[in-house]
Queue: 2 jobs
Job 1
Amino acid sequence: MATGATGTNTICHITCPRCGHVETEQMPTDACVFFYDCPGCGGRLKPKAGQCCVFCSYGDVLCPPNLDSKRFAAHVIDTLSDRSQ
Ligand SMILES: [Zn+2]
């Protein structure tokens, strides 16, 4: 299935919704990233409502925990909705 010879493929391209800057980031495989500081404009990105991390919201791929377990994502979504912004 996986073709990555050097390990898990956790590269994600994040597109900043404020300035359009695209940054290549290494995603952690065992955690979700809730806050990300855009190197283009310095703005702090947060996940969109219902999504578990900035990679899922602004990246071109879903985060590893999300790909690995839908239940994990559902759990996080529940946590986020509980805190309604
Ligand atoms: Zn930006």
Job 2
Amino acid sequence: MEPYRAPAPRPPTPAEIEAQRVAAAWVDLRWRRMFSLALFVGFLPVNVVVYVILAMAGITEESKWFAFAYMAICVVSGIRNAFFRCPVCKKMFNLRSLALECMHCGAGPG
Ligand SMILES: [Zn+2]
């Protein structure tokens, strides 16, 4: 027979809160990397499509501004990756954008 009421959930311990924070930071790092990679891979096809669409509308000169803006977003994304802080030691994670472990403490997203 089930109890009348479910027991109240216990509050998370500080260690559990810290583990959740670190896990969320690794998820954030993965998303940042995937976003940067998608931007990098999509640079040529997206810009070709935009150029073709603008050419059909008869305005080819303005496609360079889209390409510049796209490049700027790529640069900002790369800088954001480079300045990711390790959630374990709180220092800069790694200057290599595809590094798998922290250059200070060796922790990584696994
Ligand atoms: Zn670290």
